[in-house]
Give the backbone structure.
Amino acid sequence: MGKIRMKNKIVEIDGDEMTRVMWKMVKDKLLLPYLDLEVEYYDLQLKKRDETGDKITLQAAEAIKKHGVGVKCATITPNKDRVKEYNLKEEWPSPNGTIRAVLDGTVFRAPIIAKNIPPAVRSWKKPIHIGRHAYGDVYKNCEYRVLEAGKAELVFTSSTGRELWRGLVQEFRGPGVIQGIHNTDKSIASFAKACFTYAYDQKLHVWFGAKDTISKTYDAQFRRIFEEEYLSNWKIKFEQEGLHYFFTLIDDAVARVMKTEGGLLWACKNYDGDVMSDMVGSAYGSLAMMTSVLVSPEGYYEYEASHGTVQKHYYKYLKGEKTSTNPMALIFAWTGALKKRGALDKTPEVVAFASKLEEAALETVESGVLTSDLMAVATPSPQNRQVYTEEFIDQIAKKLRQNI
Ligand code: NAP
Ligand code: MG
């Protein structure tokens, strides 16, 4: 049987440490035997970013704009220790931050669900996806420590120079703190659009929570923009698919999410998304079971694992020790990219292959063949056994050969 052909390229972005080691195994053992993989390859390992003055990161981001779909391995974001370790010219910025700035996207995270890795919340049967607005609010704030009695005011001066608005924040009688935050209609609208696009694509309901009863201008603007986007562009399409959009207060959303069976996208304001994605992620069992995709308003997609380069395991690997590192999220980053490529190119055989690979990976976990992180959270069974990374990937390869 010949290999499956791809019509267009995927931008492949290689990375660092243990994820780089697993990346090659996944390609060699799970993809290349079956697929004529068409990629434009960018090596973003730290050494290459340093050699190119980080130009390669921008080139990779531009390539995603050109081809529409990318898949990325985890990369080191250097700090002072890494500058020494890799003898870097500079403390280069986070590649994910650079790519996000070029593509202007929203990050969506979703758990990979296996039958024997029960979520901490019993009612969750289907994945809960999180869409986090990644602009503004407390992440781009202006703060002041008040040390004496005085008056704090919020002032808006138009670019014409006229003062248009002034409001009292607080009359301080003594020490305290103040903070100013903002957001823009453009960014909120692009976030709303990205959420509905993603949810429609994946056939998920959309939930959005804010506190517009208290914040009658700020949060109310988020609510209004979401509603406008839904009514103008999605309502009919959603209803045809049996999907709905649900707005509720953020505290009510938190309470209800504990009782839902999942199958929804939870759109979160920046801070809520920061907190809730970690809660949802850990409730589903392991960092290595969370996938992540960056969706740009223009319809470019970049798939990756949520976790980092698994540095501690890599240092063991360098010493020649075997590790039991979990490649599931990396595999699902590839299958996500292949499915999207196949859908855009109308090549159902590429989509079908990606689904078969996902099934083989899940069957492996469900048969009790587990990496160390899963061993700790799997439903106890006499079949459970911990395997090393390569054995785990070999088991998936065996199942894939059987299923194809
Ligand atoms: P990490 O790589 O996510 O790993 C943290 C810990 O989580 C690991 O030590 C391991 O726990 C567990 N873990 C994560 N992924 C796992 C997997 N696939 N299989 C098994 N266990 C897994 O985070 P980090 O150690 O804080 O960061 C390492 C580097 O990654 C940093 O240089 C950081 O800049 C980078 N990073 C990159 C990205 C990205 O490119 N998207 C994201 C985050 C961090 P045990 O050690 O207990 O087994
Ligand atoms: Mg967080």
Summary: The chain has a mean pLDDT of 95.
